[in-house]
């Protein structure tokens, strides 16, 4: 088996078509087709069910794809290790985050230290970011919970209270704080199931036997915020994730004491890589900054 054959197979399997693989690999489609055909003939297997615009993997293809993904992930990590040695003049940091707003102070600190490093920020849910770290798609990630996975390290960055995001035309916008009980008959906008902030909020409601009468679910942090901006209801977010807008006001929840946290997460396999070490140093500097007393 030649690496070019395996790489062509992997590209088609990952992207779903020979045409996309051609664009991705910068190799002609006939060459890709021949490499995969030679691979199939050499081992007397069928890797794809070939259909127009729909190349599905066979059972053998799915098994080979798992091995190929692991091989190229390790290869990519080896390249990152070599490239990142030295003065960190060039390279790319792939950062997966659940909340762009919460990650920006850390990204700013890293960028000021290493302006030659490209930073690619990808947003997604906690499960997507976690899996991306395990797959090697992300160098570092930011999650709202400490991940107990044996291959991941979680470094706590900060914790903030959960606050309400209230449309300015709502009576609550004129108050400093609100009790959870007062939300019973108010339209509430939730994130999707699995959101850490939603878990905190709903746990507090259950503990107080509070049942909400009106609820809306929006599958992203940005979407929830937009819904409140348009006056559809009251949402909630960790204070460090709040993005201000002229149409909304942040209001404290007086009896919600559990905090929303953020963690820098990275793979143990990459812990010694200089670009990861630098991000860890930025995180530690951020922690020290938060620990400093604020002047009155």
Automatic annotation (TrEMBL):
SUPFAM superfamilies reported in the protein's UniProt record: Periplasmic binding protein-like II, Winged helix' DNA-binding domain
Entries under Gene3D superfamilies matching the protein: 3.40.190.290, Winged helix-like DNA-binding domain superfamily/Winged helix DNA-binding domain (1.10.10.10)
Domain HTH lysR-type: start-end pairs: 1-58
Alphabetic keyword roster: DNA-binding, Transcription, Transcription regulation
CDD domains the record matches: PBP2_LTTR_substrate
Keyword Membrane: no
InterPro entries linked to this entry: LysR_HTH_N, LysR_subst-bd, WH-like_DNA-bd_sf, WH_DNA-bd_sf
Keyword Transcription regulation in annotation: yes
Record-level Gene Ontology MF annotations: DNA-binding transcription factor activity; transcription cis-regulatory region binding
Family the entry assigns: Belongs to the LysR transcriptional regulatory family.
Protein name, as recorded: HTH lysR-type domain-containing protein
Source organism: Thiopseudomonas alkaliphila
Organismal lineage: Bacteria, Pseudomonadati, Pseudomonadota, Gammaproteobacteria, Pseudomonadales
């Amino acid at each position: 088996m030649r690496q070019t054959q395996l790489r062509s197979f992997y590209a088609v399997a990952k992207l779903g078509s020979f045409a996309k693989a051609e664009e991705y690999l910068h190799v002609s489609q006939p060459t890709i087709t021949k490499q995969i055909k030679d691979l199939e003939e050499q081992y007397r297997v069928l890797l794809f069910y070939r259909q127009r615009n729909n190349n599905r993997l066979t059972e053998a293809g799915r098994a080979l794809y798992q091995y190929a993904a692991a091989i190229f992930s390790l290869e990519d990590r080896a390249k990152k290790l070599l490239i990142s040695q030295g003065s960190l003049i060039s390279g790319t940091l792939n950062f997966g985050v659940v909340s762009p707003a919460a990650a920006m102070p850390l990204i700013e600190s890293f960028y000021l230290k290493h302006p030659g490093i490209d930073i690619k920020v990808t947003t997604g849910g906690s499960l997507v970011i976690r899996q991306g770290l395990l797959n090697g798609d992300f160098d570092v990630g930011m999650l709202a919970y400490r991940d107990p996975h044996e291959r991941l390290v979680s470094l706590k960055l900060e914790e903030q209270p959960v606050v309400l995001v209230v449309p300015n035309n709502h009576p609550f916008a004129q108050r400093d704080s609100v009790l959870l009980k007062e939300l019973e008959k108010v339209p509430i906008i939730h994130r999707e199931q699995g959101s850490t902030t939603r878990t905190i909020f709903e746990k507090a409601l259950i503990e107080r036997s509070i049942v909400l009468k009106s609820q809306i679910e929006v599958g992203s942090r940005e979407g929830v915020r937009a819904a409140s901006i348009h006056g559809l209801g009251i949402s909630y977010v960790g204070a460090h994730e709040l993005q201000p807008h002229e149409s909304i006001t942040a209001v404290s929840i007086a009896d919600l004491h559990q905090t929303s946290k953020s963690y820098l997460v990275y793979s143990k396999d990459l812990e010694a890589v200089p670009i990861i070490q630098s991000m860890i140093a930025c995180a530690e500097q951020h922690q020290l900054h938060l620990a400093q007393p604020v002047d009155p």
